[in-house]
């Protein structure tokens, strides 16, 4: 399993996940840079993603929805703030409605994803900082750790198809 560590810190309102992959950072980067690959790993395995817009550039947006086994759709969007391909990118992550407008009643976060070479593979660090400790607690109660772990662990299967 790629995810090797998950921590949250209420003092800093941070959720951090660490994963390791048997591929170069450039290959792991491609998973996020290509919307068709991102669809294969974004969201828990039983909630496949559909990427609608994908601009992984500073000032760009990524919009998507995940579909539950029952057909219910859950929308989200990223506002990309920084890109250092293939090493890292940062974005504001929000829950959205079907028009991709931000849902203010659910917590947003500032995220940084980094990919570094590590013993012939890649160490990926996923960091999300929430505006409030209540926001962090809300996503933890919603199952964010379990959902994100399931999503990240799908990357190995995608990389194995190369």
Describe what you observe in this structure.
With about 160 residues, this protein is of the alpha+beta class. The chain has one domain (about 5-160): START domain (Alpha-D-Glucose-1,6-Bisphosphate, Chain A, domain 4), CATH 3.30.530. Helices cover about 25% and strands about 45% of the residues. The chain has helices at about 25-35, 35-40, 135-140, 145-160, and strands at about 5-10, 15-20, 50-55, 60-65, 75-85, 90-95, 110-120, 120-130. The chain is globular and about 45 Å long.
Give a summary of the structure in a few sentences.
The chain has a single domain (3-160), classed as 2-Layer Sandwich (Alpha-D-Glucose-1,6-Bisphosphate, Chain A, domain 4).
Jot down its keywords.
162 residues; alpha+beta; Alpha-D-Glucose-1,6-Bisphosphate, Chain A, domain 4; 4 helices; globular; ASHA1/2-like_C; START-like_dom_sf
């Amino acid at each position: 399993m790629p995810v090797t560590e998950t921590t949250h810190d209420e003092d800093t309102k941070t959720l951090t996940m660490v994963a390791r992959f048997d591929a170069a950072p450039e290959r792991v980067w491609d998973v996020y840079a290509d919307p068709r690959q991102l669809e294969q790993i974004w969201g828990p395995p039983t909630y496949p993603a559909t990427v609608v817009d994908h601009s992984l550039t500073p000032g760009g947006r990524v919009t998507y929805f995940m579909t539950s086994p029952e057909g219910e759709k859950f929308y989200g969007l990223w506002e990309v703030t920084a890109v250092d391909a293939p090493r890292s990118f940062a974005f504001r992550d929000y829950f959205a409605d079907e028009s991709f407008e931000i849902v203010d009643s659910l917590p947003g976060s500032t995220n940084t994803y980094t990919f570094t070479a590590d013993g012939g593979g890649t160490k990926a660090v996923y960091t999300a900082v929430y505006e409030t400790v209540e926001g962090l607690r809300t996503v933890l109660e919603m199952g964010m750790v379990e959902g994100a772990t399931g999503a990240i662990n799908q990357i190995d299967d995608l990389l194995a198809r190369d």
